[in-house]
Design goal:
The complex is a heterodimer of chains A (about 700) and B (about 625).
Chain A lengths: L11 E7 L3 E8 L5 E7 L5 H11 L7 E8 L1 H7 L6 E6 L5 H4 L24 E4 L2 E2 L5 E3 L3 H13 L4 E5 L8 H13 L4 E4 L9 H31 L5 E5 L5 E3 H6 L7 H17 L4 E6 L4 E7 L2 E2 L1 E2 L2 E3 L6 E3 L3 E2 L2 E3 L5 E5 L5 E7 L18 H7 L17 H16 L3 H23 L11 E5 L3 H12 L3 E4 L6 H6 L4 E12 L5 H23 L3 E13 L6 E4 L2 H6 L2 H16 L8 E14 L18 E7 L4 E9 L8 E3 L2 E5 L2 E5 L4 E4 L5 E4 L4
Parallel strand pairs in A: 1-4, 4-11, 5-6, 5-9, 9-10, 13-23, 23-24, 30-32
Antiparallel strand pairs in A: 1-2, 2-3, 7-8, 11-12, 13-14, 14-15, 14-20, 16-19, 17-18, 21-22, 24-35, 25-28, 26-27, 26-28, 29-30, 31-34, 32-33, 34-35
Helix pairs in contact in A: 2-6, 4-5, 9-10, 9-11, 10-11, 11-12
Chain B lengths: L3 E6 L17 H25 L3 H4 L4 E7 L4 E6 L7 H13 L9 E4 L2 H4 L5 E10 L2 E11 L24 E5 L2 E2 L1 H10 L3 H29 L1 H24 L3 E10 L10 E10 L2 E5 L15 H16 L14 E4 L19 H14 L18 E6 L6 E6 L31 H7 L2 E8 L15 E7 L3 E6 L20 E5 L5 E3 L4 E7 L4 E5 L14 H10 L4 H6 L14 H17 L25 H6 L2
Parallel strand pairs in B: 11-12
Antiparallel strand pairs in B: 1-9, 2-3, 2-6, 4-5, 4-7, 5-6, 7-8, 9-10, 10-11, 13-14, 13-17, 15-16, 16-21, 17-20, 18-19, 18-21
Helix pairs in contact in B: 1-6, 1-7, 5-6, 6-7, 8-9
Classes of the chains: A alpha+beta (about 700), B alpha+beta (about 625).
């Protein structure tokens, strides 16, 4: 679906991030370096309309656009709302229940009413196939092709729309999966067929089953959605290339996206971390925490040494009942704290904030849409950090008195507290809870959050980042331009990317480097082939090799990047040394004398795209004037203080002021706490130095 | 014996005690501290899991980490294993008593695996580091985790603690930060896998030190008085939540009895588990006096575990998801447990398989309370880890390997309003994972032929018990195989007319394909030759309510999905099919159910524990006690 035309070179890039409530569009003009934004309501019945509306609101035309980058929640929503296709699973004989048995764990160990994960495919559609491959890749039982043919007939008769194929040890030998897929495709034209090795070549049969089952389940819907978008783009005379954002933060083309739908589940959050990486680059920062806070959740990711930290799997729907997806993706941790988080008093008198959320409907009390429970947003309003008449650019009036009443009667009075202390306390509790989610991506990975800067975005991120940073002794907070559109902005900074992971158990001290490099070469060849067409003329392809290593006998491994020269020299000791170092950093100890083993090989093939170069902001060091002043509560002042409120659009590069202050823009307010210092960066980022007293 | 309510007062006695509401702590700081404590134990947990060297820690999560106050009271526990809720706290208390407060110094690391202190087996090496602030002892950070091997005999039944491996009394493995090399040397010489053992030791020490460091960070942040005051308030809140829940249980004395198959030595001699629960106002007493005396085989556990049974049941019923797990939650619970019972065994009784019997005690406490709180209890579950110990030599280099097979999950009991969960780990464990088939086959010379749900294994009921599973593992090279499975005969009971689930089973398939069953569930030191296979079948959960009340549509759906057989639909659920198909004849079904109802109601299915097992039946354990005529009709 590549419609590049050399004669006429359009100069715009458009990114569209379709979320549950809003569709965010950013249009970047490569000539002027200017970005324009369009935020519109998502149109659930016809998502593509919301995109087109957003493009128009951003005052742009698809006909003048070179790249259209898209992130969407359609995949994850189809999974969570269980609105996917009628799907069947073909699996090795003896193992159709693997998907239902799962890992047998009960994370809430005292809860007698615990619930297990619910498979996407009912038992009657999980069909066993005569075949078996050994752990070493040998064929123990040949594939019964005739059986597959008759299964295919049954599937057709049952109106099955999608088929997932998982055979044990396919990473060691994918032949049976490949043949079974081919037969089903031949027998059932038009059916969505997906096999596990195309998505994951890592061991762990339950996780891989869940991955391929989810891909099949959402496949037909995602495929036709992307088809619809593509057709609509054509109608709008879009001459460029259409890429979709993956959970890895990389882009892939629509044809891949239509087959490997599972890779785009977390495209929005991933793009936020890619945006953070770009902020780091333009500000010359090596390390940063990406902190994203919205209405119901707060999320954290990490950029370390300029690279985004990755993970190997995710549980969609939460740890206790979620469905695992085993693919390389950006390591993002999440906690149920957001603007809509409800404050309540537990039996005995404990004050709790979240994870219950008022969401956007009924929403916080101050929305006046029927919410009765005080929330974090209500607390921000009462403290003056939000203004009742300036929310969403004044589009939405907030009910200050209602928020006060709820906080007074539900929290302050029962606890015998002052209402403002209660509101401030709710914000503090929320901030510490969010600091723990940052800890999960830093401390638990052997990193110290205090060594990082924090890039904060999402509607509520800039309100709270100063407090979260204090909790973690983070010295610097950066609020990028348009923090409410940040995921869409991040998409503009993404590269094309294909990730491969292949389980290959072998001892490092006896590893056959020729065999190893052959595996890498094969992965890279596949990746290059996938990307070559797309990068032609606009970028170049690079590859990164890494391996999951562990000490012999351990299970948990760490991913260690393997520079080409170490591999070329067959430098076992050099690789071991790197592994020992990474292990020590991540786990606090290492065992240089113990042998190591390779678990899996990683290959990332990256098609570097030229990045948009943002236009520097007008520079001025003259004192800036606040747009207005209002009373804002700060605990440091034990009450309200007269606080300057700046309009972000008024701030030139080089502008400086001290907290307490607020910076308002559409859909977001930044709080500069007393003692903190703000300076506007060259490209308009708000750089806040946190008071370390 | 049937569930019996000896004495029930519907009028609640006035609560005797109230949480010390007078304690005044800042609500905001308290909540921040509460979140902080939970986060610390989570961090300790993930640190241990990521650095431990054996699968029993990092996959089975056979460990617990925690923070304790200076007297050894639980401040926050990160589970791990729920049944460890007492072991660490009691161990910290014993350590404090041993050295005296003045004998413990900063940077010490204390260690023991004394089974009669930890309450469990010698594999549970338990480490604690004291936390000092300004030269004052303010608490402990501790970690108990299962080592793959602790020496002792590999195979067969043990009859005393001395044959179970290395016993480490309370020692300082580090004193003032300096390692005691002699103790390291003793450990290295007494375990089969010293590298892994020392690796696990390092991981445990790192996790406890991390906990101590984070605790001190909280002090630095909020001040010592605020932190300790906050902790006291958190405990008071937890206590208030638990008291409120107990208050909602009708006062009375509730008793129930169940049985274990045998102790592995006196084959077939049932071991009685009799519990008494007294509810008065907002306090509960669990009396385990009438639980069996300690037994000859290795199924004993220590007092810490007997008390843990009561606390686990209590927490499940009163504040299941309240965090952090702390001592306050347990203040309304009194426990009566004289020494010398099977869960308060004394030296030198064998303890290796400590974890099996206590699970049935927990189930029996729920059974006792069923008449009082029918909407909050659960029918019995398979109540066995289904663990098997395998040892052999790697085909290539002849290195010894030890692997814990099993941990396959099983059926859980049904509840009012919900079917039981299938294929889920028993109550001794929590966030315990099974091992991927692909991993087992890559690491060890064995082939997993099948890992599947057991059809018809869930107890029939209005709400059906969860299904057990079956795992078939074939030897590629020979290995020694030991398994000690319980509740083969004494099956997981149902409640309120629900039927029992299938019992646990173990079988060995000879190379020729013939299946040998082991009616005792215990196979000790059997050499499995190449092409032979072992078969583990876990039991199902008990049902809840009479199966005749299960909606026909649910039975049809279970049949379509293959969770139950047509025969079971007919026999247990009174379904009548139209001739020549699986279509239900609704009118005939209604008539059939009405006809069956009186006989179903006469038999107390909740008590249907005993089964004479048919040694050759491959699937469901046959149910033959009670009314034989009824058996013809049902199950």
């Amino acid at each position: 679906m590549n419609r590049r035309s050399d004669s006429d070179l359009p100069r715009a890039r458009i990114a569209a991030d379709v979320g549950g409530t809003f569709t965010d569009v950013v249009a970047f003009d490569e000539v002027s370096g200017v970005s324009r934004y369009g935020k519109t309501l998502t149109t659930p019945a016809h998502l593509v309309e919301g995109i087109i509306n957003g493009v128009h609101k951003a005052d742009s035309q698809l006909s003048g656009t070179r790249l259209f980058l898209h992130g969407t929640t359609i995949g994850i929503n189809t999974l969570i709302e269980r609105t996917g296709a009628k799907t069947a699973l073909l699996t090795t004989k003896g193992f159709r229940d693997i998907y239902e048995i799962g890992r047998i764990n009960r994370p809430e160990a005292y809860d007698l009413f615990f619930q297990k994960h619910l498979p996407l495919i009912p038992r009657e559609l999980r069909i066993e196939v005569t075949e078996r491959i050994s752990a070493g890749g040998a064929e123990l039982i040949p594939l019964d092709e005739q059986e597959i043919v008759s299964i295919a007939q049954r599937l057709k008769a049952m109106d099955v729309e999608a088929v997932a194929i998982l055979f044990l040890h396919c990473y060691a030998n994918a032949d049976h999966e490949i043949r079974a897929k081919r037969i089903i495709e031949e027998q059932c034209p038009g059916m969505f067929v997906t096999s596990s090795h195309e998505l994951s070549q890592e061991y762990r049969e339950y996780e891989r089953t869940s991955t391929v089952a989810a891909n099949a389940y959402i496949g037909p819907r995602v495929r036709s959605y992307l088809q619809e978008v593509d057709e609509r783009l054509a109608l709008e005379k879009f001459p460029g290339t259409f890429f979709v954002v993956q959970s890895s933060g990389g882009l892939f083309d629509v044809s891949h996206a239509q087959r490997e739908c599972i890779r785009m589940l977390e495209s929005g959050p991933a793009a936020g971390v890619i945006g953070t990486q770009a902020v780091c680059k333009r500000l010359g920062l090596a390390d940063a925490i990406a902190f994203d806070m919205g209405g119901t959740t707060a999320k954290a990711g990490v950029v370390l040494d300029g690279e985004v930290m990755m993970a190997g799997n995710i549980m969609i729907g939460g740890y206790t009942q979620g469905l695992p997806i085993q693919i390389p993706l950006i390591d993002i941790q999440e906690v149920g704290t957001g603007g809509g988080s409800i404050a309540r008093i537990e039996t005995g008198g404990g004050l709790r904030v979240g994870p219950q959320s008022a969401g956007s409907s009924p929403g916080p009390v101050c929305y006046g849409l029927g919410g009765t429970e005080p929330t974090v947003t209500d607390a921000n309003l009462v403290l003056g950090r939000l203004a009742p008449d300036r929310f969403l650019g004044g589009d939405m009036k907030l009910d200050l008195e209602g928020a006060k009443r709820a906080l007074q009667t539900k929290i302050a009075a029962p606890l015998g507290m002052n209402m403002l202390d209660a509101a401030n306390g709710i914000i503090l509790i929320g901030a510490t809870t969010m600091s723990h989610v940052v800890t999960r991506v830093t401390t638990e990975r052997g990193l110290d959050a205090g060594d990082f800067a924090m890039v904060a975005y999402g509607g509520a991120g800039p309100l709270h980042a100063g407090l979260v940073a204090r909790e973690l002794r983070i010295p610097k907070v950066i609020i990028p331009l348009s923090p409410g559109h940040f995921s869409a902005t991040g998409m503009l900074m993404a590269d094309l990317r294909r990730d491969f992971v292949r389980t290959w158990f072998t001892r490092l001290d006896s590893v056959d480097f020729a065999a190893m490099c052959k595996l890498y070469d094969a992965m890279e060849a596949e990746g290059r082939q996938a990307l070559e067409n797309d990068v032609a003329g606009s970028g170049k392809i690079s590859t990164v090799r890494a391996a999951d290593l562990r000490y012999a006998g351990q299970e948990h491994s760490v991913t260690v990047e393997l520079p080409m020269q170490l591999l070329a020299k067959g430098d076992r000791a050099g690789i071991k040394k790197r592994f020992d170092a990474v292990h020590a950093q991540r786990f606090g100890f290492n065992s240089p004398n113990d042998p190591a083993e390779i678990v899996s090989l990683h290959s990332s093939v990256i098609g570097r795209l030229e990045k948009p170069v943002p236009k520097p902001l007008r520079r001025s060091t003259k004192p800036v004037k606040p747009a207005h002043r209002r009373k804002v509560y700060f605990a440091e002042h034990k009450g309200f203080v007269d606080t300057p409120v700046y309009a972000r659009s008024d701030l030139p590069a080089g502008a400086k002021f001290k907290g307490p202050a607020l910076v308002e823009e559409y859909a977001s307010t930044t709080v500069v706490f007393p003692g903190d210092k703000l300076e506007v960066g060259k490209y308009g980022d708000l750089i806040i130095t946190i008071d370390r007293r | 014996m049937a569930i019996r309510k000896a004495k029930t007062k519907r009028v609640k006695a006035a609560p005797k005690k109230r949480a010390a509401a007078a304690r005044k702590a800042d609500a905001v700081v308290t909540e921040i501290i509460r979140n902080g404590l939970v986060a610390i134990t989570e961090q300790m947990k993930s640190n241990l899991m990521r650095t431990a060297c054996n699968m029993i820690i990092y996959e089975a999560q056979d460990f617990t980490v925690g923070l304790f106050d200076a007297s050894g009271n639980i401040v926050s526990i990160g589970i791990g294993l729920p049944m460890f809720v007492r072991g660490m706290g009691d161990t910290v208390k014993a350590m404090t008593a041993h050295f005296g407060i003045d004998g413990i110094y900063p940077e010490d690391v204390l260690l023991t695996n004394d089974a009669y202190i930890t309450g469990s087996h010698l594999n549970h090496m338990t480490f604690a580091v004291p936390i000092f602030h300004d030269k004052t002892l303010v608490g402990f950070s501790a970690c108990m985790a299962h080592w793959q091997d602790i020496g002792g005999s590999l195979d067969g039944m043990t009859k005393d603690i001395y044959s179970e491996g290395l016993q480490v009394p309370i020692v300082k493995i580090y004193e003032r930060g300096k390692p005691n090399k002699d103790i390291f040397a003793v450990i290295r010489m007494n375990v089969r896998l010293p590298e892994r053992a020392i690796g696990d030791l390092n991981a445990q020490v790192a996790a406890t030190r991390l906990g101590a460091r984070c605790f001190l960070d909280l002090i630095k942040r909020y001040g010592r008085d605020a932190l300790l005051g906050g902790i006291a308030t958190i405990m008071d809140h937890a206590e208030a939540i638990a008291r409120e829940q107990v208050l909602s249980i009708p006062d009375g004395t509730y008793v129930a009895e169940s049985f274990m198959d045998d102790d592995g030595i006196d084959k077939g001699q049932r071991v009685p588990i009799k519990v008494k629960v007294i509810v008065a106002g907002d306090e509960m007493t669990v009396d385990l006096t009438d639980v069996s005396k300690q037994v000859k085989g290795f199924y004993n556990s220590g007092e810490a575990t007997g008390r843990a049974c009561c606390q686990v049941a209590f927490k499940c019923l009163t504040s299941a998801v309240e965090k952090p797990i702390n001592e306050g939650s347990f203040r309304p619970l009194k426990i009566i447990l004289p020494p010398g019972r099977v869960v308060s065994a004394v030296r030198p009784s064998p303890m290796r398989w400590w974890m099996t019997f206590p699970m049935t005690i927990v189930d029996t406490i729920f059974k006792a309370l069923a008449p009082a709180i029918p909407d909050r209890v659960i029918a019995a579950h398979h109540a066995d880890l289904m663990s098997c110990m395998i040892n052999g030599r790697m085909p290539g280099d002849g290195r010894i390997y030890l692997v814990s097979g099993g941990l396959i999950g099983g059926g859980w009991g049904a509840k009012q309003g919900e079917d039981g969960a299938s294929a889920t780990i028993c109550i001794n464990d929590g966030d315990t994972h099974n091992s991927p088939v692909e991993q087992i086959e890559a690491k060890y010379p064995m082939i997993v032929e099948r890992y599947a749900l057991r059809e018809d294994s869930g107890g029939a009921g209005k709400w059906q018990g969860g299904l057990g599973v079956e795992k078939v593992v074939r030897a590629v090279n020979e290995f020694m195989f030991n398994v000690q499975i319980e509740r083969v005969h004494c099956r997981p009971w149902g409640l309120f007319g629900g039927h029992p689930g299938a019992g646990n089973q173990i079988a060995v398939r000879a190379a020729g394909g013939e299946e040998l069953n082991f009616p005792s569930g215990k196979v000790l030191a059997r050499l499995l030759k190449p092409e032979e296979a072992y078969i583990l079948r876990s039991g199902g959960g008990g049902g809840y309510g009479t199966p005749l009340d299960r909606p026909v549509a649910k039975v049809e759906s279970d049949l379509r999905e293959g969770y139950i057989s047509r025969e079971r639909a007919e026999r247990c659920y009174g379904i009548v099919f139209r001739p020549g198909g699986n279509e239900v004849d609704l009118d005939a079904t209604i008539a059939r159910r009405a006809q069956l109802r009186p006989s179903f109601e006469h038999l107390d299915w909740s008590d249907a524990a005993e089964t004479e097992h048919d040694d050759h039946s491959a699937a469901d354990g046959a149910f033959t006690t009670g009314n034989p005529a009824l058996f013809q009709r049902c199950c």
